[in-house]
Write a structure and sequence with these properties.
The protein is mostly beta strands and 177 residues long. It is built from 1 helix and 10 strands.
Amino acid sequence: MAGPAGDSGWTARSRAWVAADGFFPAEFDPTSRRSFSWTGRTAHLVLPHLDRSQVNRLTLKLRAGRSPASAPLPVLWLMVDHVVLVTTQTSNEQQAVSVDIPRRRAAGAIVTLMVSNTFTPGVHDTRALGVIVDDVSLTAATGHFRPSGYVMARAASGTPAARHCCAPSRGCSRRHP
């Protein structure tokens, strides 16, 4: 699973696997023809139904986005469930930063990005910008995702309803075993 991180406010399209908070609305880079999102000083990626029975890896493609005349490049701390697991110096070149989300019994995870310093682009743009996030991806350490109990329950509850809605008595010609 992968994609940009931006949160576009109340008009945002929801992603089933992640909810983003602390990101500015997505912007489009005409040179690379890709979307990206700035963080503030702190941003959160909430993965409410992530199966934690195995290790998962979250990878961020990011860059500092600073001009030589602006503030120094920030240090980035990545936390999982409020515990710092990765500390790295950012660069103006795109870099992939990964954090392993450890196993635990309960589903779900909160990944927090925190930067040491922000900058304000100018008088017409007073946002306190942290780092640019170009892409967020989630993979299972084993290479295979297992659905959480919540997902399995939702799938199981949908199957009888789908069969009922597509029953021959309701005008559906498809036969179910």
